[in-house]
Each structure stands twice: as structure tokens, then as C-alpha cells.
Amino acid sequence: MFASCADPSLLSGLDWLACYLTSGKHLDFYRSFGTVLILLAVTAPVALAFGFAGALAARSQLGLVSILGRGYMAMVRGVPDIVFFLFFVIALDQGIEWLTHQVRCPDWTEPIRNGLEFRVCPQAKVPPGAAPQSVHSLYGFGLAVVTFAIVFGAFAANVLLGAMNAVPRAQIETALAYGMSERQATRRVLIPQMWIYALPGLSNLWLILIKATPLLFLLGVRDVVYWARELGGSKTSAYEYPHPDWRLYYFLGLLVFYLLMTRISELVLARISARLSRGQATMAGEAMRKAGATA
Amino acid sequence: MSCWETLADYGLRSLGVGERLLPRSDFTLCQQVVLIGSGLIWNIYFGALALTSGFVLATGLALAKAARSRWLRKPAEWFIFLFRGSPLFIQFFLAYEALVMLPRQGIDVFGITVETAWLTRAWAGALIVLFLNTAAYSAEIFYGALKSVPKGDLEAAEAYGITGWARFRRILWPTMLRLGWPAYTNEAIFLFHATTLVFFSGFPAFQQRGDALYYANYFADKTFNPFVPYPIVAGYFILLTLGLTLLFGVANRRLNRHLAPNQRPRLKLRPQIIR
Questions:
Q1: I need a surface site. Which of A40, A132, A184, B145 has the fewest CB within 10 A?
Q2: Is some CB atom of chain A closer than 8 A to the CB atom of B275?
Q3: Chain A residues within an 8 Å CB radius of B213
């Protein structure tokens, strides 16, 4: 990066460290923190949407839709989430290739699953075999996002269904008595009121989501864990910056990063909670009202 | 090869007993069920030992966090924040790297050489991490329960002249457990789920002796077919979860046996505490 870093073997002390920490690989490492933040920013709304759909489906009057919703919610209760992470990445990949195969090569006669092989016609490869590396990594990242969204959507559905049930029943009944349809009551009365009840569960889920991001490493994405292992491993003098095994320090850095993320989130969420409690008929809202009255 | 032979060969494979080589081709359903089930022994080992040892530390930490003295409260708060605020995955990596750095030939303590090599193996190293982790999570649960012990119970105890250790053992502790039990059941279940992370993080599987997910991943990698091994793991874990719920339900009934049946809290499985 700097001109003085041209020949690292001449450097020592702080100069060496400054050059070491700004080497090309390290810049990739810093960028991978961005990957984590992007994953969080993309997954959170998508998972919330999945959860919302799941919770609404579970409340549906139609038997089949309700069973689907409940099944989706029950999925995460008995089985470790990491099983889903490992499963969905392969299953989604194969599912997408299978579908494109059906569309693009209807005349293909050989079986797709032959013994130990999963083989689709060359036109159905996703992404195409000739695609540049960046497309492949983007596709991998996309699969990871969808996987995270499916698993965390199931968690969010549990939280949101609980919140919907927590809205006082009388509110809905009043809405129905005023002649609103079931759907109108849901949209105008239930959904606006449920957020304050959902907030503790959703904040909990956000903290869990932050702590689940290192699992990206298992899904084959070059994330912070990948780079920490890669850069921290001992480097012989064949490398530009030889050093012994420093993985411990890299992982300490990651630990601090995650602790900071958790702390900042906790502070922000406490603010949001205070803001949403204002004027609500809950204990927190009542306490705020009293504090305001005496002041 | 019949299924019984497979069971004899691979039933205890995760402990290093039986056939040394894992199947490499012509995978049968029986092999997958047996090997993954054999791996489950490790999940139960990690879960059960971490939970029982963590329970003791968690009680101590909860009391320390509720203590008036800063010197007790602050360390407990920091410990709990450290383990609850960071991913278990990173904790495993960090612990492994730290344990590997211990001197190979052992540490001299007053002339006696203490072996350290065993600490880098999963059965000890990962167990220590899981123990500390579950202690932190459970401590937070118990702390919350301790805070909501009814004031009247303690006043009644004092009126009867029960104080100090007797008050803790006979009033405070049972009430704390009773109030925290539903949340603690959740914690136990998700601790067992978390044990699947052991062999995917820093700790290598020695001679391919891994846990249930390790073998499932092995089969999925070899057959390119995730639709058989992962549902098998899922099935095993659903059974494990059911078993745990039953076991903790028995304890729950015992803790609440003085209450009228309609006042007893029911155990409800809420997926909230994955880490």
C-alpha cells in the first residue's frame, strides 16, 4: 500500500507492523467484516418477511396453510440449526440446478442422480461453468443469505406468532364488532399493535443472528473466520511477512469485534424499546407516564 | 453385509472401537443410521457433562451477580457478558488456539510435570468451552429467577428463624430453580444442539472419531446427497429433545409438587437460545 513497504525484509518494529497490517490480504480481511455486515443487513429484513409469512400462515383458517406454517415454525425446535445450515446450502444448490435442468434440457435421458454423482446437463449449471470467480462467490453468498433467512425466519415466526397472540383479544373483537372483516382487523388492529410485544423476542433474535454469522465459514464463504485462519497461520520465510502462528491474536480480535457488536446492539435496542413503550398500556409505558407526571 | 454386522462394526466407531476404516463406497442406509447414531454418543457426552458441571458454576455465578459486593458482582457480570456476547464458534477456535500454545512437553509444577497435550483434544478442550459457555447462559437464567423470588417467602423464612446457609438451601435455591426451570430446560436442549459445533470448529476429529453431524457431513460429502444423512441427524436430535423434555418435566413436577396442579408452570419449548 505504502511506497516504503516495497521490500518488507528491510523493515522492523512498528514500520513492519504498519506495512504488515496494510498488505493486500489484510485489506481483504477488513473487507470481509463488510461481508458480515452486509449479510446482517440483507438477512434481517428477509428473515423477518419469512417469519411474518410463517406466523400469518400458522394463524390461517385454511387447514393446509396452517399446517405448513406450523411445520415451518416447529422445524427449528428439535433440530440443531447448524444441521439446517449444512443441509439447505446443498439442497438449494441441487434444487436450482435440477429446475434449470428440467427447463433447458428436456431431452436429457441419463439419470441425474447416478450412484454417487449429481449430474445435470452443462447448460443447466448454476452459475455457468465459464462464469468468472466473482459470480461464483456472489452465488455462494446468495445461497448463504437464503439459508440464513429460512432458518432465522422460522425463529422469527415463533416470536411474531407469540406477539400476535399477546395483543389483547378484546381489541380484535371490537374491530369485528365495528364491522371490519377478519382481514381488515388483522391489518389495521393486530399488526400495528403487535410490534411492542414482539420487540424483546426480535432483539434477542438479532443478537443471536449476529452470533450466528461466523457460521458463514461453514457454508464456504470467505468470511472473517476464513481470513483469520488464513492470515494467522505461521508463515515461513518464503512469504513476504514471515511470522509464527498468530491465529490466537486474530481470533482474539474477532472476539472483541463480536463483543462490541453485541454491546452496541444492546444499547441501540434499549433505546428503541424505550421509544416504542411510550404511551403503551404496558408496565414500561406506565412507568414512563408516572416518571413524566412527577417531573 | 447384514445390518447386524454393520452395527457390530460401526456401533461404537466414534469411540474408536470396531472397524477402523469408514465406508467408502456402496453406502447403505443402515451404515448411515448406525454411524450417525454412534456419533450421537459424543453429543450426549458433551451435553450431559457440560450441563451437570455448568449447573454448579451457574448457581455460584448467579449468586455472585446478585451479590452486593462489587468485587463479586463485576467479575460475574463480565464473565457472563464475555460468554453470552460472543459466538460459541469463535470461542471454540480461540480456546483451541490458546490450548495449542501450551508447551508440548508439559508444565513443571513443583517438580511434577503436568501433561498438557490432552487439553487440545476435543473430549477435554471442547468440554471446557461448553462448560463455561453453558454456565454463563444458565447463570443469567438463574440470576433472573433469583431476582423474582417472592419477598414474602424470605420474610416468612426469617420469621421462622431460618437464616444464612439454611435459608439459601431450603428456601432461596429451590425457589430459584423452580422459577428458572422452564428457561433452563430450553438452555439444556440448545446446549445439546450446540454440541454439534465441536468438530466443525477448531477441534479436529481424532482418527475420524466425530459426533453425529460429523458423520452426516461425511456421508453428504461422499454421496452428494444431503437428503438422507441430514434427516437422520434431525431424527436423532428430535428423539434426544423429546427425551430431555421428559426428563426435565419430571424435575419440574418435583420442584412444583407443593403447588396445586393448575398453578404449576408448564414446560414450553421456545427456540430462543441458540448461540
A1: A132
A2: yes
A3: 80, 82-83, 86
Per-residue pLDDT in tens (0 to 9) along chain A, 295 residues: 566 777 777 777 777 888 888 887 888 888 889 888 988 999 999 999 999 999 999 888 888 899 998 888 888 777 888 888 888 888 888 888 888 888 887 777 777 776 667 777 777 777 777 778 888 888 888 888 898 899 889 889 988 988 888 888 888 899 999 999 988 988 888 888 888 888 888 888 888 889 888 888 888 788 888 888 888 887 777 777 788 888 888 999 999 999 999 999 999 988 888 877 776 666 677 777 777 776 5
In this prediction the ipTM stands at: 0.85
Give the integer Cα–Cα distance in Å for B19 and B34: 13
CATH of the domain at B110: 1.10.3720.10
* Domain-embedded: residue B166: yes
- CB spacing of A255 vs B213 below 8 angstroms: no
Contact map slice: A 175-204 vs B, CB within 8 A: 201, 204
Q: Does B226 contact A87 at a Cβ distance shorter than 8 Å? A: yes
Whole-angstrom distance, CA of residue B178 vs CA of residue B33: 38
d(CA B193, CA B275): 10
The CATH code of domain A14-294 reads: 1.10.3720.10
- Is residue B269 assigned to a domain? no
Asked if A83 and B234 come within 8 Å (Cβ–Cβ), the reply is yes
Q: What are the backbone dihedrals phi and psi of residue A18, each rounded to the nearest 5 degrees, phi first?
A: -60, -45
Q: What angle do CA B267, B268, B271 make, to 5 degrees?
A: 135
> Alpha helix (H) ranges present in A131-189?
133-166, 169-177, 182-185
Tell whether B63 is covered by a domain.
yes
Cβ atoms B83, B91 nearer than 8 A? yes
Packed helices A224-232 and A24-58: angle between N→C axes, nearest 10 degrees = 150
Asked if the structure places residue B268 within a domain, the reply is: no
Residues of chain A in contact with residue B23, where contact means CB-CB under 8 angstroms, are none
Q: Supply the range of the domain harboring residue B71.
A: 52-263
Which residue of A lies nearest to B242 if distances are taken between CA atoms?
A78
Spatial contact of B267 and B242, defined as CB atoms under 8 Å apart: no
SS3 sequence of B92-117: HHHHHHHHHCCCCCCEEECCEEECCH
Please, which residues have CB within 8 angstroms of residue B235's CB and are 6 or more apart in sequence? none
Counting the structural domains of chain B, the total is: 1
